[in-house]
Amino acid sequence: MSTSEESKKLLKLRVYSFLLDLVAITAITKAMIWSYSNFVETFMLSMSVGHKVRLLSGLDRLEIVVYFVTYFGHYSFNYLMMDGQTPGMLLCGVQAKNGEGTPLTLRQSLLRAMGHFVCHFMGSFPLLIPFFSSDRRGIPDWISGTSIGRKENTKARSSTLAPRPSLPLIEMDNFPGQVEVTNFSGPSMDAPKNDQKQAA
Questions:
Q1: d(CA 5, CA 25)
Q2: Can you give the pTM of this predicted structure?
């Protein structure tokens, strides 16, 4: 596969991973809002109807706040704890990497999450920058000093490591004073009977 074809395929995988993460973030937000409203209606029985209406009247504004908090936490937490991947990136086989080939630092994870947050707040159009930039990178990549690439195969990566030195075999003949172990058979149960017969 040529470099241009691989680059286009990687961009498609980035789009797919973003959509999968967006679905996950939306589902988490909806579940949290539903849990909140269900808790107010079910468990706050002693609260007056007027108070319940006030608590539930601002669900739209609350959902927006929860959505953006979940959005930022989703990216920052997963980048840091999942070796530069989100659940969507894990399913698509892509990974955020830094220039040194080491896992993302806390600063890089937060900056990438901030870049996603800013792009999404601006209507997600800045997320299309990698399709037009020469290095196929976008705002989250630039501000964090990272890039998106294919997830390295663990077996392939481990095969490139230097093999562990094997321990030298120790021959038992090199040890002085070696004790030869022989089979030992205990006295036969018939031995006392034979002794009694000879004494008789």
A1: 30
A2: 0.71
